[in-house]
Structures are given as C-alpha cells and as structure tokens.
Amino acid sequence: MIPALVVFLYLCVVLYIGIFAFRRPGGTGAEGYFLANRSLGQYVFLLSLFGTNMTAFTILGSAGHAFANGVVTYGLMGSSSAFLIPITLYLFGTRVWALGKRHGFMTPVQMYRDRWECGHIGTAIFAVQATLLVPYIVIAVMGGGTVLNAVSGGVVPYWFGGLIVAAVVMSYVFFGGMRGTAWVNTFQTVLFLTFGAAAILFIGVSIGGFPAAMERLAGNPESAPLLTREQISPRFFFSYMLIPLSTIMFPHISIFCLTARRMGQFRKTVIFYPLCILAIWLPCTFLGLAANAMTDVPGIESKLEARAELAADAGDRTPAETADLQRAAAGDDVIILMLEHYAPLWLAGLLGAGIMAAVMASDSQILALSTMFTEDVFAYYGGKSRFGSAVQVQTGRLFVVLIALVAYAIALQAPPGIFGIAVQYAFSGFTTLLPLLVAALFWRGSTKWGALAVVLWTAATMTAVAVLQAVVAAPPPGTVVPIWTVGGLDVITRTPGGTAVLGYMPVLPMLIGSSLLMFVVSRLTPGPGAATLRRYFPAAAG
Amino acid sequence: MPGTSPRKPMKNWLLAAAVAALYLLHQDVWYWESARPLVFGFLPIALFYHGVYSLAVAGLMWALVRYAWPAHLEAQLEAGDAADGEPPEEARR
After folding, report:
1. What is the CA A482 to chain-centroid distance, rounded?
2. CA nearest A28: which of A207, A186, A131, A180?
3. What is the ipTM of this complex?
4. pTM of the predicted model, to two decimals?
5. Distance from CA of A286 to the nearest CA of B (A)
6. Residue B62: its chain A contacts at CB < 8 A?
7. Which CATH number among 1.20.1730.10, 3.40.50.720, 3.10.290.10, 2.40.50.140 corresponds to the domain A2-20+33-316+326-438?
8. Contact residues, chain A, for B22 at CB < 8 Å
C-alpha cells in the first residue's frame, strides 16, 4: 500500500504544480491559455517536449516489447526517434514556430488554411488529426487505471484508478492550460530521469548483477535470440524507421513548437533530445530484456510459460485460446513487476509515480484537441467573432472536461487490445500526413487539392489496414498469412504483429502514396495567389 | 540554410552528407545475428551500437545547430518583414 500512497502524494503535487504554480497575471486570453503566451524558456521547453512524448505506450510499451522481442526494441523505437525527432524539430519545428509567431497561428490547421487559401479542407485535416489522436487519450486513462490498480495491490479498482487519473489531468489542464501542462511535464521528466537510474541500480544489485543475467539468457537456446535481431527482418527494421516521422505531425507536438519564447529554445532541445532518449529508452529496453532472466518473479515466470506454450505446436488451439495466451505473455507490466519484487517500497512508490507520469502524458493531447476544436472549428465557423475571446477560452475548457469524460467512458468499456492497435495506426497515419507539412513549408507549387488528396489517402489506407486486420485474425508467432500473392510473390501478408507489404510495414507504401498524390494533384490544380506565396517564400519571390 | 559566405554551401553539403550517413548507419545489418561481445560484460553489441549511435546523433545535432542554424527565420521576424502582408482574417478567425 505504501507505493500507492506515494503515487497519491505525487498526484497531489502534480495538481498543485498544474493549477497553482507558475501562474502569471495577464495570461488569461486564448494565447495565454492555449500557448502559455509563447513564452516557455529553453529548459522547460526541452523537458516538457520530451515528457510529452514519453507516454505510457513508450515507457511501458518499450519494456514490454523488449521482453518479447529483445534488443531490437531500442533500434526500432529508441535510436530511430533519437535521430528523426530532433531532425524534424530542426527542419520543421523551427519554421512552424516562425510562421506562428509572425502570423499568430495557434494550430497547424490555421497555417494550412492560410498557406493554401482553403477552408473546409482545413476542417478535413482537423477531423483526421483528431480521429488519430483520440485513442492516445483513451489509452492513457486505461493505463492510469491499470497502474494504480497494480501499485495498490488491487486495493484501488481499475475503474477508480482511471477516474482519478482522468480527474487529475482534466483539473490541471482546465485551470493551468499550456503553462500548467508544460510545468507538470517538466516535473514528470525530471522525476523519471532521477528515480529511473536508482531503480536500475537496485534491480541490477538484487539479481546478482546484470552480467550474470545476460550470460544466463545467452546460454539458453530459447532466450539467446533475444540478444540479437534474428527474429526481425531488416525490411521491417528499415520501414519502422519512418514511424518517428509522425512525431512532428502529432498536433500536440506541432502546437507545442509554438510555445517557445525564442527560436533559440530549439537549440538545446535538438542537441539534448537524443541524450534524453538514450537515458530513458535504453534502460527500459535493457530492463525488459533482462526480465527474461528473472524467473524468480512469479508474474514474469507465468508470462514466460505462456510464451513457451504459444511457441509450441498450436494443434487444435482455438483463436480465443491463442488470444488469451497472447495476453498472458504480454510484457507491458514487467517493469512494475520487477519494481515490486526487487526495489525497496519507497523506491517502488516513486517509480510507480514516475510510470504514472508517463501514463499521464495525455494532458498535452487533451489540451491540443481542445485548442484545435476552439480555433479550427469554434472560432473558424464564427464562434469567436460572435461571442468573443473570453467565451472561446471557456469553450476550450468545457471541451477539456468533455474529452476527459468521453475518454473515461470509453476506457471503462473497451478491451485493452483495441486501443493498443489504434495507437499503432496513429503513428502510421501521422507519418502518412507528413507531405502536408513538407509541402506547406518548402514547395511553392503545392495546392489545397494536393492537401485534400493526402488527407483522403490517409483516411482510406488507415481504414483499409484496420478492416484487413479485423477480418483476418493474427497468425501465431513465426508464421504469416498471405492476403494477396502475385506470381508466387507475397505482396500483402497478415503478420502476428500487423500487416506487411512486400515485407515492409504498411507505412512505407502509405507515405510513398501520399507524397506522390501531393505532387501529382498539385501539378494538375491551381495554387494559391501570388500575395500568399510572397508571404511564405519572400526570398524566392525576389 | 542560406549561405552568406562562399564556404557555406560546402559546409551545408557536408552536413547533409553526415545526416544521410547517420540515416544509413542506423541500418546496421552487420550486427544482425550477433549477441557478443557483451560490452561491459552485460550490453549485447547491437544495443551498445545503437546507444553509441544516439550519442553520435547528439553530436550531429550540435554540428547542425553550430554551423547551419536557420537564423534567417528569426532575423526576418526581428526585421519585421510583415511588410509582405498579413494572412487573411478567415485563416485564424
């Protein structure tokens, strides 16, 4: 129960920071509430941006992925993000910041509407972005319920844990807006960096040192492949490298780029971002891998048994039994199990709070969705001019409450697997939308019709993949189901983890398709007027 | 990355080549099926490689910030080049 009390204390501190700390007079307008008056300093900007990206999916998910797949996890998710996220912040984030500062944009859709002289196409972009973002918020509430339930030893039921997390996040986003959210994220990142290191030391000492654990894994034929990448194809690895391109397209990230006081705030962020990834993701990957050697932890032992049963001949096993085994073998909670078993109670509590911090990263997404709704829909369709700026902010706050309530209601009803998959879709979907940003910032010849083609393509391909995966059940590990074969060549296959196109992740053809559509449709349709182009490309206009 | 000196285009090309090289170096097929050596006695070589890779990325980002920072974006803002006109009100109503 002590870890649960530490987590509750942590939630109180978060509420204080989000609502009362760092409040500033005069920050009550739309820019004050939604963008912290574009005034965040460089360290808050770095730590908060990193904290925003450090979600339940990344922390618990990376350890769980490493538990099942081994060292490949860091190359897939960690080092690829360490490379591509700073590069996109450097190339695109700085330009989005400059355009936002110059023209007063508060959302990416406002920029697209202005850049391509369009209205309802912007609304279509909003709709697709919002649809892709909602599962993230739901999964955070579900994660909160799960973590509170786990750290309290089952005393706090799942429904109450989810309710507490939804209420806490809703409260500080409601009252604190972007400034409160940014400071909470900064606090959470520092907490996780500090106590994460302590947890690794404790666990390493408790299991008799990591070298012995790795030797045990290397000496066992069943676990030795986890120390290599032989279970993953290089094609899959290559195409996964496209996934971090989605980050800059997530609305909460692109909106966050607008909060920096000066463009110089990006300098330290892009340099230190890879180091923050290294400091958090590599230990999470390593702990997930090392969990395979911790057979004295009862929860982990049962997972290993379920995995061995899955790998054995399926025989007459039903799909439902396979699904049950897959759930039993899933490793998303291995870090929590290790902490409970090895770390002292006070540290387990603090780390539980750190994990809760990652789970609660939905705050930025809720705020982003609220900002988008009030700016791109409410204000755009006349609400601001009719009711004024103060009502616009109140509408944003009401929307925050509405999103939190809806997310909680869905989290109570939905099975966990659905939203885990939906989050995977979100990454591919936002990567497929990337040509919107590239064309808006760098290509004079792009048009609103090209943008519409990208949006429709994204929606159509996401739906197609979702339908395919719903209709064709996932095969057992190590096997694939051919869906479309041409001349003996498997073009589309259903894999245990999703879908593959010629062995690559679907995101590769999806991105190639959206890039081609942007190019071809833009070449065939008229672009915006000369005055607009001069504002975006002053040097080229001479 | 606008060039203001004759050496700047060459510098920009070198940095772009470094970015491309690091992108390619992420696909380290040479350690695909190797677990050993275990660096420091416990880190499988592929994990160690990608850890070092992350450090190299930080070095690259330092070089980009140091030598190819898009300072013209901020300079344009400070110069108040809004003379080119404001966006139509409909875009951000």
Report:
1. 30
2. A180
3. 0.88
4. 0.89
5. 8
6. 271
7. 1.20.1730.10
8. 83
